[in-house]
Amino acid sequence: MLISHKHKFLIIAIPKTASSSIRRTLVSLGVVDERVCPRPVHKNEFKQHGTISEAITEFNKRSWNYNDYFKYSIVRNPWDRYLSFLTYYKTRLDFYKNNKPLNNNQKIQKNQIIRRFNNKTDREILRDLIIQNPAQSFYLVDSNNNIIMDRIGQLENIQNDFNDFCRSVKITEQLLLHKNKSKFTLSKTDLYTQELVDMVMEKEKWVINEYGYDFI
Fold it and tell me: In what order do the strands lie in the sheet with 2-4?
């Protein structure tokens, strides 16, 4: 979640939708006012991957009118998104194998990832990830289950969508700062069984119907 009071925007960062690239780009411009925490210590802190419903709750506590803010988010092909979770965790596991000095959060994550991969195939882990992670629509609906975002872009067209966002909030258009890609290349067609394809189709009905996403 990213908030700018000067430029009046609120960005809901759905995991694995290039939210890190958007955060790095906007933070580098100095236009982000609210610092969010990956693991909030206090209940009233904004969450890095908080939902629009959680944001509204925190805005109301502070007597901020969320309707004054341009609400923006990015979605992506859901089958690619769950595969991206798997790639991320494999990359982190590889990082932790190097036995570098770790801070407390990294130690917690290392133990979680080791447990996740313990005696499981990539396909089994992918299935767990589909079950455990919320659908993209979960992040975008208010307490009445309505989508209230002002603009929802697509990762598949992210630079153009981000340019439109910049124009909407009166920020100079910026080239997104991307992280280096993972060295792990996973095949969607090799890992997904028909059961897993159908699981994603059922779970992600909204984004599939709204944006016409297909497995291939």
Answer: 2-4, 9-12, 70-75, 151-154
Hunting for tokens 């195939």 — which residue is that? Answer: 121
What is the SS3 assignment for 73? strand
Which among 169, 149, 143, 171 is positioned nearest to 17, based on CA atoms? 149
Beta strand 2-4 with 151-154 is unpaired
Those residues whose C-beta lies under 8 Å from the C-beta of residue 39, and which sit 6 or more positions away, are: 105
What are the pLDDT tens digits along the chain (216 aa)?
999 999 999 999 999 999 999 999 999 999 998 766 555 545 557 888 999 999 999 999 999 999 999 999 999 999 999 999 999 998 888 878 776 788 888 888 888 888 888 888 999 999 999 999 999 999 999 999 999 999 999 999 999 999 999 999 999 998 998 875 667 788 999 999 999 999 999 999 999 999 999 998
Phi-psi region of 30 (alpha: psi -120 to 50; beta: other; left: phi over 0): left
For residue 54, CA distances in Å to 74, 76, 94, 156, 175 come to 17, 22, 33, 27, 29
Residue with tokens 């997904």: 192
